[in-house]
Predict the structure.
Amino acid sequence: MKNIILIGSGNVATHIGIALKNSNFAILQVYSKSIQNAKALAKKLDTHFTNDLSKLKSADLIIVSVNDDAISIVLSQIKNTAIVHTSGSIGLNVFRGNFSSYGVFYPLQTFNKEVDLNISEIPFCIEGNSLEFENQLFKIAKILSNNVVKMNSKQRRKLHIAAVFACNFSNHMYSIANQLLEKNDIDFKILLPLIKKTITNLEKKKPKEVQTGPAKRNDKVIIREHIDTIKEKEIKELYQKISANIIKFHE
């Protein structure tokens, strides 16, 4: 499957498209609801573009990289062809038997089209409606990445939830930390060595094993002092709930 069409022009489509092109796959066309966005990505990939699904070219594989709530709408307008989506939370049932070869090509990473990344380090989670098609997808992913895993829809959904905790929620914690520091004229970058050390520790040990802090120690005096110091009601409540959960987790 060397000839590929990209449905979507956002962060995921951009990185996957560039990686495929650099690996000598032929990107025949880019579709986006926005003709300007389709044109912008097509220019990077030196290919054709459209904002009309009825004008898709013939290809070996279509990769759908759009918002989760738009996947079924897009699929309803595409004729039977080998096709995958790149969502972590949507299963195979979205294809509803309208395609003979279909599956999931999910890269586990946070993407920004303006930020370069090494796609060979990104885990790809692969699922197909048949063993033959799944193996074909696996081979494509192995060309792009050193970390490819076959994973069913139930497993991938759980993985996506875990990723939200590990990435999205933790980044929000950084945002709260930054907010607290800014109000006291402290640069957030002072926390970077601490954050980096925590990540490094996780390379050899489980998260529970590297947990530190007053909640881990069940240090009620420090926890109460922190709670009394925090002025923002929502942050105070969040601190209390997370601390209580950590204490229970390490009982």
